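Example 3.2
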Amino acid sequence: MAESLDLKKLSEDLKAAGTPWQMDPQTSLAQMTEDERRIRLGFVPPAGAPTLEEAVQRDVTAPRVTQEMIQAESGLGAPAAYDLRNVGGKNFTTPVKDQGGCGSCVAFGVAAVMETTLRRQRNDETLAIDLSEAHLFYCHGGEDGRTCQNGWFPDAALDKARDKGVTMESVYPYSGSQQACAVPSGWQNNIAKVTGRTELSTRSAMKDWISTRGSITGCFIVYQDFFSYRSGVYRHVSGNAAGGHCVEIVGYSDSQRCWICKNSWGTNWGEGGFFRIGYGECQIETWYGPWGANAVTLRTWQGNLKVNGLWSNRSARNAYAHFQGVGWRRVVDTSDVQHHAMLTELVGAKAGNRGVRALVDGNEIQEIYVV
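Structure, written as tokens:
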């Protein structure tokens, strides 16, 4: 077993290394017991993937990423820096959460990737999207035997999000300890899904995805010094490996040679819950993944919508409605009767300036109530 956190030794080692980043013995994680810290990780690689011990050995022998290496990679398409918290003044990320005393980091990282990706693809930083990590972890992960004690894997979580979808936090809230799956009925009408996932095998591919598509997952080795990280660009300085952890990577900076990540340990850790980690550090680019969500679709009831416009042509069942703040959505086309009935109601709602409550599934309006 690795030794526990030694704050005095870490302080000495940081000074000896020229203080590459700042520690804080008062971070929420540094104040916990060793068992409490370890349970807040949650990535245990599946069969066939490098074990923690193998990842550590690779990390020991991996070359440090230099500015010359970054310069040689430049000009491949992605900008030199990108941060999804500030894209032309827009913040596409969602608030930092706390996974509590459960090894559910994968669910938090994947849910965050889905939320950011949806906001980014719609170019809407105000889009209200808060997914249920409880549904993703305790229900979907639970089907595969995953618990707070044995964690999960991001590719499996993304596949569940593709095949079954993830409901909203308001439908099924998360608690910070093991809970039975008790998602209420009707959750299928309030879900987000991914259309697929893409593994990104190079640093350039990761940058290109972040700067054009959205955030990505990142799984890495947590060494003992990471628990007391406060600010700066983290690079392993002191202590052995405590376990594996997965987070959301939301940006990068070539000048600082780092990734910008959102953690799930609350806002009293790191830079308000975020952290920067050096390129290549702790196997974050190569241990498992990273993965991006190809696209995210949303199926949810939306209320008090205003119909701004309607469009159709001579083709059968081919009509669209434009809702204020939502955009153009196709009127359901499963049958002539349903299509014509909904279109008639939408025409009446527009003429009478009446609000509409609609079940919107991706780009399709499936049900409506005119109020």
